[in-house]
Amino acid sequence: MAEGEDMQTFTSIMDALVRISTSMKNMEKELLCPVCQEMYKQPLVLPCTHNVCQACAREVLGQQGYIGHGGDPSSEPTSPASTPSTRSPRLSRRTLPKPDRLDRLLKSGFGTYPGRKRGALHPQVIMFPCPACQGDVELGERGLAGLFRNLTLERVVERYRQSVSVGGAILCQLCKPPPLEATKGCTECRATFCNECFKLFHPWGTQKAQHEPTLPTLSFRPKGLMCPDHKEEVTHYCKTCQRLVCQLCRVRRTHSGHKITPVLSAYQALKDKLTKSLTYILGNQDTVQTQICELEETVRHTEVSGQQAKEEVSQLVRGLGAVLEEKRASLLQAIEECQQERLARLSAQIQEHRSLLDGSGLVGYAQEVLKETDQPCFVQAAKQLHNRIARATEALQMFRPAASSSFRHCQLDVGREMKLLTELNFLRVPEAPVIDTQRTFAYDQIFLCWRLPPHSPPAWHYTIEFRRTDVPAQPGPTRWQRREEVRGTSALLENPDTGSVYVLRVRGCNKAGYGEYSEDVHLHTPPAPVLHFFLDGRWGTSRERLAISKDQRAVRSVPGLPLLLAAERLLTGCHLSVDVVLGDVAVTQGRSYWACAVDPASYLVKVGVGLESKLQESFQGAPDVISPRYDPDSGHDSGAEDATVEASPPFAFLTIGMGKILLGSGANSNAGLTGRDGPAASCTVPLPPRLGICLDYERGRVSFLDAVSFRGLLECPLDCSGPVCPAFCFIGGGAVQLQEPVGTKPERKVTIGGFAKLD
């Protein structure tokens, strides 16, 4: 039993040692310098937070052409092992400059430092190519002298060396070859010594004799982290610059206004964050392992998919080769047939010409026929012979080869095909579409329009995703509603919820897959169901001055000669008529919304609603718009106002003129602007592209909105004791265009008297 327990204990110890060894071996990757691929020696922290050995950094700067910028950041005394001249205490003393030399340095601008020329207006900025992030980082004017040493990383490297016994015994750095094993180290001298060398370089009675010996080590670090600018211990941390600073750095102008905290606070905060993150990672090892398995499975799928892609490309290229080979064979066959046909014709022509030679068949036969003396027989035989001789004579006189020897008509123009083959490449997914915000809007439906960037690969179809943003968030990932395989570059989203905010995005798809989503666009839907109606100009006092479009959605007021004549009598009094156009529907319940656009060049236009009976009663005559008793907004004259001051007005109009909206112009202006506290202050706001009118029949309220941003402009009461109609009043020239419902008909553009209909 005891032997079994001992064996189990031994196995557990060995397993622990294996785990520790594996952990140390894995950690070794974090302790290698990216330049020399060896363990860090006096690592420096670059501004990009990566580390590099000090000697490697000097070498890299030297390769970049920076000379004299590799100062020691720690500014520690040079070790006796690296500088032979300091092996004697007497030689270690440096000669101080003379007083006149110091005066000249002070007068010339406090001297120079490595990397800066005397009197330079623009100090040289040193750029260091970081081997870890493959980017150039700015070291400033001082180069490596302005960087901190990573003492923590040095301690980790030293502990790792000791744990795995890397490098064996530490040898004395001052012995003559062969060196003895080191027994002591000196932090001040930054060297390791055997007993004899330590006594030799620390003579009795000198200042070096007071150096305290330490254990031998390969890395000598200062006792604390020193500021590279002022050689003082760092005590604070600048959150703005994300840099450790000393007391002198803290009061410098460079850090004025920065958020500076003590090192203890930064240490505790960063340690807590690191501990929390490490605890989370260690507590989710199963998740890490699951993700590793998923990544390994992805690697396997990648290998299989890559092999399949290679086979598909090879098959396609072989198919192209087969097509080219087939085409080559057919073209060669056509050339061969053409060649044989020409050769046959030329051979026949040669035979025909050979028959014309003396002694040949045709000539000899003709000569024998000429010997015939019997006239009838001669005529009979010579008739056919003469025809042959005539053709031969004509061919001889007008000689021309029966076929051309050139095959220029068989030349191939493969420039386009070569260009296509040269440009043959893998199909890319479509780029992120760009939503056209000028044409995208929400009305009775949502109309979404987009386009692809100029150099984007084509898309076969698109996917639209949309969701409401004003609903409570559900746990889990955000759920989008999706419409697949949308053809074209526009789409309608039917039946959106009123008074909501929708966010929409689009992405394209082709054979290569789905591309990136477009930027999200937010659209406000109308606050109430959209009311569809047309303009009704069948009644009124001045129909001849109103031009209504054929589709009855646009109207323009033409003032004509009466307004010009009235302008001449303006100082003595005049009567200007009000042109009124109503909608062909009346609202008797619920909430309704509609939108229109007013021409910014309109002289005076009033847009609103009113009781149908009151509108017909008030505008049947020709009212005097100059008279102080006339006000189309109040619904009655000023003499009866005292009796109905508490009642809701029968009209509610928004006054627009010369590209401005008038709000709160007086006691009798737009209904609802005045209250018990007195009249509201007058003001004007710019005219938006479209105006929205929202009628709440049950509450007896009318709201005027900016139909683009749905920002409220005005809200006022309204008498809803009967049917309420949309109304538009014109004084002088003006034009109004009703917004066309999105889903009724395709987009088109109608121009009425120079006023363009909205898209």
Automatic annotation (TrEMBL):
InterPro entries: B30.2/SPRY, B30.2/SPRY_sf, ConA-like_dom_sf, COS_domain, E3_ligase_FN3/SPRY, FN3_dom, FN3_sf, Ig-like_fold. Its main location: cytoplasm. Residues 429-528 form the Fibronectin type-III domain. Residues 222-263 form the B box-type domain. Residues 370-427 form the COS domain. It is found in: Cytoplasm, Cytoskeleton. Gene3D superfamilies: 1.20.5.170, 2.60.120.920, 4.10.830.40, Classic Zinc Finger, Immunoglobulins, Zinc/RING finger domain, C3HC4 (zinc finger). The keyword Calcium does not apply. SMART domains: BBOX, RING. PANTHER family: E3 UBIQUITIN-PROTEIN LIGASE TRIM36-RELATED, TRIPARTITE MOTIF-CONTAINING PROTEIN 46. This is Tripartite motif-containing protein 46 isoform X2. It comes from Ceratotherium simum simum (Southern white rhinoceros). The gene is LOC101390682.
